[in-house]
Specification:
alpha+beta; three-stranded mixed beta sheet; 5 helices
């Protein structure tokens, strides 16, 4: 079931033939140490997703960019670049002093898209 879902998501991502796709290098091993979340994290099969995405991108000539796990994508304001070091995981809306207000995950995705420091898979 999960493998079929991963195949469909990867297929949807590469179907439009983008020039590049950017993903974040997550510390899955560290995330697995949280005994409350480890089962849910294991069920997501992040490694399988990454391997299938790399394979498909290589087949279709799509550049897969991998951003370092320490890049502050969630803590950086996409509008002004200010880094908010006190951002908690429970803060689901990113609010900056410059007036920029956005969903935390959407803000992080914009920062990952525009990140200039990455490795190519």
């Amino acid at each position: 079931m999960q493998t079929d879902y991963i195949n469909k998501i990867v297929s949807e991502l590469v179907k439009t033939k983008p020039n590049w796709i950017t993903i974040e290098d997550l510390n899955v091993k560290g995330m697995m140490k949280n005994r409350h979340l480890s089962k849910a994290i294991a069920q997501q099969k992040f490694f399988e997703f990454r391997i299938k995405l790399i394979t498909k991108c290589n087949e279709l000539g799509i550049e897969l960019r991998i951003v370092d796990r320490f890049y502050p994508s969630s803590k950086t304001c996409h509008n002004c670049g200010c880094v908010k070091s006190d951002l908690k995981l429970s803060d689901r809306t990113y609010m900056c002093e410059c007036g920029y207000i956005e969903d935390r995950d959407y803000n992080a995705s914009l920062n990952l898209r525009d990140c200039q420091i990455y490795k190519i898979a």
